[in-house]
Amino acid sequence: MPRPMWNVPGRDHDRDHDFEPWVEVIINQLKGGSMQLDMLSIVGMPGIGKTTLAQKVYHDPSVTSHFHVRAWCCISQTYNKRDLLSEILACIDQKAQFSETKEDDDLPDIIRKNLKGKKYLIFLDDVWDIEAWHTLKISFPDDANGSRILLTSRDHEITGNRHVVQLLTDDESWELLQTNVANARVEVYPPELNVLGRKIARNCKGLPLSIVIISGILATLDQAGWVEVLNSLSSNIVCDTDQCKSILELSYIHLPDHLKPCLLYFGAFREDQAIPTQRLKWLWIAEGFVQKNESKSPEEIVEGYITSLIKRSLVTVGKQRSLGGVKTCHIHDLLHVFCKGKAKDINFLQLSKEAFDGPHHLRRLSYGSDLKYIAKSRIFFTRIRSLLLRCNYFSSKDTDYMLSFVFVLKLLRVLDLGNTEIGYTFPSELCLLVHLRYLAVKFQGRKLKIPSSLANLSNLETLLLTVHCFDRAHCLLPDALWNMQKLRHLHVYGAFIDIRLANDSLDSSSTLYDLATFSTPKFYLGQSMVQMMRKFPNVRELKCRLLESEESTGESNAIAEMGFLTQLESLKLTLGNVTAHHIEFRLPLNLKQLTLEYFPWNMISTIKEIHNLEVLKILQPADGVEE
């Protein structure tokens, strides 16, 4: 097997071609060979690049087209069978919803039925021992159609067709470090650092992750700093993962103070989770991590924080945004373990999957287990500021436990229930948490009505509501919403927002000057649409649905006036039931990204040239042609 070279997390790299021999060999084995269900494993010590290699295989176009179904699941050392199977089922069938009334033993059967007769690829990342595989394998049918299991593991006893990833040689280590430092530095580093660099690379013991992390440190230091790093590594000569842990500690020490809490916050998420950076940034802002700057918005400042962590090779880019920037990101599992441990040691964040028994002065909790335990432990949380629930499912009893628990959390600033459906109605108890800055909640059903008491949350900056429904749902927001002057981000996912106001309310309601991102309201073509949009004049990202109003119904021509939204950079328009043959769009001159959904071509062609437009997306044109 050829030896791979490793690129910097989060950036493109011209040495990616060195992966190609490995990728080609594994892909050929996935696609060829026996028609019976077969397992391939990529084995090696932590930090050596197993997941990186597997990702390249999993996402290769020839693999995505070869298999009918693909699913990705991270196992890790401590795992919950139900959570893992639910995660696999969600990949196989995104509309699948596991009922609380079913037993855990039903899940393997549901997955088998979904996979029956299909050629599938299941990727199990970070399998610690063979028992995890034995727990899951009953879910995967063998229909003799060429289906495959691909897994990564540090356990060399794992069966199947094994591919062992080797450590880098001294020369390969130096080449990797040299290239990564050069890419991360603004100026060229002096040649006299080469001797120090070779010694530092050798002390990384051929472990790619250690070299990449060290590169991020060295890129910010002068020669004296390089000497300090070398001395630190030389005095901590340990083996394997312990050596890598000492490098992670060194990297944390060299972080600027304002970036340390941002890095540790990654520990609140699941291992190997693809984290939406927009949501992450809103959380950081709500937590108070962002240093104030009169010339920049909090969102602009926190964008720089993400960039800094990427340049230091601590954060890995997942998906990119159309307009540039990072859409999703994650951290390596060893760094995730470090963040959890460090956060607990300094009482920054506590993670728990079971009953909890302290400390009383806890400020942040990320919890992912049975809520009856957390309800019984609520005496320990009276001073808590942030709660992130990572449960994948709620029963009605769980909702009761959660609400009884929330009653005592009077100081909460961050409440994230966005991964867990809590029922069909918005709990009025949440409106008592007057210090909230960030609230994310998920619901079921076709229609969601938000109580007017929501306006009690006068400090709220980010409100994220998700409605799970097989068809597009509707969300009715109260008029009192316009009194929430600090609101910066308002999003309802899976539902259209009905925010129609009576004429007298339009004139008397307040203007949300700080609202920067908004989705997905319904607007009715005509004067009412203009009046409504003037209530958030500084919006930068907007997704909305256009409908006919009473005044525009039957007209052959209609006007969509939006030119006054001078700060708007990204706009998505979804066309509803409109009988007008022609709509004149007056769009902002600063618009950079425009997405049109369900628009007929004759309307698309009438959109006048937008000089600053960089991205145009056309989704499901009404004429039946998709671009």
Automatic annotation (TrEMBL):
Subcellular localization: Cytoplasm
Residue ranges occupied by any Disease resistance protein winged helix domain in the UniProt entry: 269-336
Residue span, NB-ARC domain: 23-186
Keyword tags: ATP-binding, Cytoplasm, Hypersensitive response, Leucine-rich repeat, Nucleotide-binding, Plant defense, Repeat
Origin superkingdom: Eukaryota
Primary location recorded for the protein, binned into one broad class: cytoplasm
Family: Belongs to the disease resistance NB-LRR family.
PANTHER family named among the record's database cross-references: AAA+ ATPASE DOMAIN-CONTAINING PROTEIN (PTHR23155:SF1152), DISEASE RESISTANCE PROTEIN RP (PTHR23155)
Functional summary from the UniProt entry: Confers resistance to late blight (Phytophthora infestans) races carrying the avirulence gene Avr1. Resistance proteins guard the plant against pathogens that contain an appropriate avirulence protein via an indirect interaction with this avirulence protein. That triggers a defense system including the hypersensitive response, which restricts the pathogen growth.
Full protein name: Late blight resistance protein homolog R1B-16 isoform X1
Organism the protein comes from: Coffea arabica (Arabian coffee)
